[in-house]
Amino acid sequence: MRNRTHAELQARFPKLQSSNYKHASEATARYNCLAFANGDYRHLWEAGKHGGRYYWPPDIADTLDGWTEIFTAKGYELTTNRELEPGFEKVAIYVDLDDLLPGHVAISDGRTWASKLGRIQD
Fold it and tell me: What integer pLDDT is reported at residue 21 of this predicted model?
């Protein structure tokens, strides 16, 4: 798995600019964005797959409500405030507008956002 260059990432994610992100890890298929947001760097979190390199929380649906439940169970609270707030960790769950199914997640430490880009780098 090779790391994408800044130009390749910006072509794939047009809102990225060299000034608003940094490369934080080497590319790996070992874990995905949902695992990254939960601090799990050993598993791919994929619904319906269990064991080995896969993990999915028991009794959680692969829906927006299910993904929300994963984070509220960890102590996060729902908010409509999208702004970074020092002292507050936040999670952003991105959904596909066609079917409203979750497809990506990012986390904030109150100062910056962080995310795992599929099989690419963090």
Answer: 62
d(CA 12, CA 30): 21
Give the integer Cα–Cα distance in Å for 63 and 69: 10
Tokens of 64: 């927006």
pTM: 0.81
Q: How far apart are CA 32 and CA 115, in angstroms?
A: 9
Instruction: Find the angle CA(26)-CA(29)-CA(32) to the nearest 5 degrees.
Output: 95
Indicate the DSSP class of residue 66: H
- At 80, list the tokens: 């409509």
Q: Which of 103, 100, 97, 95 is nearest to 45 (CA)?
A: 103
Report residue 34's pLDDT band, with 50, 70 and 90 as the boundaries. Answer: very high
Tell the residue number behind the tokens 């949902």, with chain if given: 34
Query: What pLDDT sits at residue 28?
Result: 72
Residue 91 is encoded by which pair of tokens? 């999670």
Single out the residue of 99, 97, 94 nearest to residue 116, CA to CA. 94
